[in-house]
Write a structure and sequence with these properties.
Number of helices: 3
Order of helices and strands: EEEEEHHEHEEE
Low-confidence stretches: none
Strand order of the largest sheet: 2-5-4-6-7
Distance between the termini: 31 Å
Radius of gyration: 15 Å
Helix content: 10-25%
């Protein structure tokens, strides 16, 4: 059973037959969380580092790093009792644009925001696949916590 995590979405599950999956991460960043103790997994697909205003954060908290990561951790705790100290964190995506001049550097800004927030929360990513110029599809097996990354060139 696949649970698709779209842009600006967050999903958690403890169904051992499930796989959490998000497609075509370019400048976006997926953050994964896995508790080996509780066999529970979660993923958030972040599009931007921070919201332009508080209403945007309320409407789509998973869309932004500053609200999406706390949402993921809170859902893991509320639904499965996961403690931050037991979570294995992964960070994937944040590619550079394939264009010659990437004026906005959204991928780099997303990576920086995610890493800064994880550090502030005293969390370290144990699995990292960020930057570069490839699009990533991320799949997490709930039974094992294994993350599989498939890459392809960014065409845009």
């Amino acid at each position: 059973m696949e649970i698709i995590v779209g842009i600006g979405e967050c999903a958690v599950t403890n169904r051992s037959e499930a796989k959490l999956k998000t497609f075509a991460l370019a400048s976006c960043v997926a953050v994964t969380a896995y508790s080996k103790i509780r066999r529970a997994a979660g993923m958030v697909h972040i599009a931007l580092p921070f919201p332009p205003h508080t209403e945007a954060a309320r409407q789509r908290p998973a869309y932004y790093a500053t609200t999406g990561i706390p949402l993921l951790l809170e859902k893991m705790h509320r639904e499965f009792g996961c403690l931050r100290t037991e979570l294995q964190i992964g960070v994937f995506g944040g590619a550079d644009s394939a264009r010659d001049k990437d004026y906005f550097s959204i991928g780099k800004k997303n990576i920086a925001a995610v890493m800064r927030l994880l550090s502030a929360m005293h969390l370290a990513a144990s699995s990292i696949g960020v930057g570069g110029d490839v699009s990533r599809t991320v799949e997490m097996d709930v039974a094992t916590g294994k993350v599989t990354i498939t890459t392809q060139p960014i065409i845009i």
